[in-house]
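Quiz preparation item.
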């Protein structure tokens, strides 16, 4: 996997996380005026991934099910 830094139609920086076969896994939720801010956001994603919890919304128990469905994978 790798991150790509690009510019959107407004000339602001965005990032994409891509698999080795070229498919996009994730795209930045916002755009950045400065490239350094975009690179910082990539660093935050990279540092958060190992500790990120998974919220299972398929339990059918609504909000409480989602809260209790949090787990590390």
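Solution:
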């Amino acid at each position: 996997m790798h991150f790509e830094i690009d510019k959107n139609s407004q000339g602001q920086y965005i990032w994409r996380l891509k698999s080795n076969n070229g498919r996009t896994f994730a795209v930045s939720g916002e755009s950045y005026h400065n490239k350094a801010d975009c690179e910082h956001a990539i660093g935050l994603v990279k540092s958060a991934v190992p500790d990120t919890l998974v919220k299972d919304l398929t339990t059918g128990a609504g909000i409480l099910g989602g809260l209790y469905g949090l787990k590390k994978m």
